[in-house]
Write a structure and sequence with these properties.
This protein has no helices and 11 strands. By secondary structure, it is mainly β. The chain starts with a strand and ends with a strand. The model has no long low-confidence stretch (mean pLDDT 95).
């Protein structure tokens, strides 16, 4: 069974930094892509950043230049370094993984981690 475990959320002042981590476990044949999404109260879940198996990255315009997604294949972990945080970055952040497993290609989600930026 595949699991995604997130960590690193918390409360930070505007202008500060946080680093989120998402570690996967289970019977995984291949990591096709991984990413981070977020959902603020009353809003739809939105893409923050993604990274493919080849290392290509994609960012939402609102976080370009401030956030960096990276992965450590040896640790089965993807990170989101968030700098220059703004109050509008406050949301629950979800890890997302597009994985090839015994059941085929499947999208998995983490449980979410709260990020709160105080102004």
């Amino acid at each position: 069974q595949v699991q995604l475990v997130e960590s690193g959320g918390g409360l930070v002042q505007a202008g500060g930094s946080l680093r989120l981590s998402c570690t996967t476990s289970g019977s995984i044949f291949a990591y096709n892509a991984m990413g981070w999404y977020r959902q603020a109260p009353g809003k739809q879940r939105e893409l923050v950043a993604t990274v493919t198996s080849g290392g290509s990255t994609n960012y939402a315009d609102s976080v370009k230049g401030r956030f960096t997604i990276s992965k450590d294949n040896a640790k089965n972990t993807v990170y989101l370094q968030m700098n220059s945080l703004k109050s509008e970055d406050t949301a629950v952040y979800y890890c997302n993984a597009d994985l090839s497993t015994v059941v085929g290609v499947t999208i998995y989600w983490g449980q979410g981690t709260q990020v709160t930026v105080s102004s």
